[in-house]
Design goal:
alpha+beta, 10 helices, 7% strand
Length: 291
């Protein structure tokens, strides 16, 4: 990027993704000077990483055939660069094993083996192979955001139990505006992989605190705030169990102390970027979009 995105524009540019909780830091800084380009090559103005959690090439191909009638009919088929990246973990452990052995991989012969087996849910050898060890969103997100293969459960931690740098930190160091937008609770594994470092994806309060207190994020948009379910629906009496997920414990995803500071408009733990602006209603979104 040759010109970082000013903070004041980051929030309204994505207002179509309404959610139960949005926090954005309102005071725009002057555009920081980007690193001097060593060539005259044009640089992108924005970098947007969009993740369809659990999808692969087949998912995108199926969607293209359904919506456009062919694989090459999709708009992204004309992109000048289309590359693949593996996101399977280093191993299936839930904690660091402190070695470099790649214990999990992808064998296309097994992955496409159509030999039938007597199992109604997984009736082919390929399905059995692929379902044996699922890739965890935390390890997959870490691979995408930091380029490091690690154990299942890790958020930007390597297999030696050490935190690793991820792309949002690099972007912030270059003076760029940064943010995450998600349809799930904001400290969940996939958004967390682009905003925090933790040995365990289940350390929700620790992850949320990092996102809100360290000053490296300009926007956080997602569910997970008290008073709403994980689907962004208001918590009311009589909701069925599925619809009420996230309502039983209002502090499951973010600590009460951090939330109270959000509501009070005070910097969380001395956030060097200042206080957040908390937005929870459609009217507030509209007002933000109008400037």
């Amino acid at each position: 990027m040759t010109r970082p995105l000013a903070r004041r524009w980051l929030c309204p540019s994505i207002l179509a993704a309404l959610a139960a909780l949005t926090a954005c830091q309102p005071n725009a800084r002057p555009d920081a000077q980007a690193a001097t380009a060593t060539t005259a090559e044009a640089r992108p103005h924005n970098v947007i990483v969009m993740i369809n959690d659990g999808a692969g090439w087949g998912t995108w191909d199926a969607a293209a055939y359904w919506q456009y009638g062919s694989r090459e009919g999709a708009p992204y088929a004309a992109f000048p660069q289309r590359l693949a990246v593996t996101t399977f973990p280093l191993n299936a452990s839930g904690q660091p094993t402190r070695d470099d052995s790649q214990r999990i991989g992808y064998d296309p012969v097994q992955a496409w083996d159509t030999t039938e087996v007597p199992a109604p849910d997984l009736p082919f050898v390929a399905y059995q192979y692929l379902a044996a060890v699922a890739t965890d969103s935390a390890a997959a997100g870490t691979a995408l955001s930091s380029g490091v293969k690690t154990y299942n459960n890790a958020i930007n931690y390597n297999n030696d139990g050490q935190p690793v740098e991820f792309n949002t930190l690099r972007a912030k160091a270059l003076g760029m505006a940064t943010g995450v937008v998600t349809s799930v609770p904001f400290p969940h594994a996939t958004p967390a992989a682009f905003a925090a470092q933790s040995e365990s994806r289940n350390s929700y309060h620790q992850i949320a605190h990092q996102m809100l207190a360290q000053g490296h994020m300009d926007l956080v948009m997602g569910t997970g705030g008290p008073g709403y379910s994980v689907d962004g629906k208001p918590c009311v009496d009589g909701m069925d169990k599925v619809a009420a997920e996230g309502c039983q414990n209002p502090w499951e995803w973010v600590s009460q102390q951090d939330w109270q500071q959000l509501e009070a408009g005070t910097p969380i733990a001395g956030n060097p970027s200042g206080a957040w602006r908390l937005i929870r209603s459609k009217d507030d979104f509209a007002a933000l979009a109008d400037g």
